Task: structure prediction
Amino acid sequence: MSEAVRAIAEWVADSGDNRALPFIIVDKVKAKVLVFDAVGRLLGASPALLGLAHGDDSVPGIGERKIADIRPEERTTPAGRFEAEMGRNASGEDILWVDYDNAVSMHRVRATNPAERRLQRLASPTPNDNRISYGCINLPAAFYDRIVRPAFEPHAGIVYVLPETRPALPLFGAYPIERPADDRIAGK
Result:
């Protein structure tokens, strides 16, 4: 768990910003997704594939555009706090909508184009090759099915996507926890 993830997880547990809902922290720098229950216990962590382009903001109106019209430099995974809920995509696949207006979701990795090597990218030991998507957050199917879906299926939750170009605490209005890490956030 990176220091940025730890800081946000501790703040969520202390402040109750998650409104007693499960929450996910997406660490874009480490290309990792961490899922927590409503009280801040770590349920699991996994590598993730993220938007090809570095940056923290979606291009205005991107959710209304066809995928073929999205240029490589526009393929960002936006940073921020999102009220997420389970839903379906246009193909009927269950997904976790992170930012519905900008068409950003969290879903099982789709390895439909062998040249993209998405499964190999997820399995690589570093985050250096985990930037490939149009902005969605791709996860190993087993992790999505075993951790994400059960945590969010009965109710909504919160997804915190950490920024990569600016500090995380101010983005969320968070404050540092001035005490040693305790057992409130498991998985230290």
In short: The chain has one domain: 3-169.
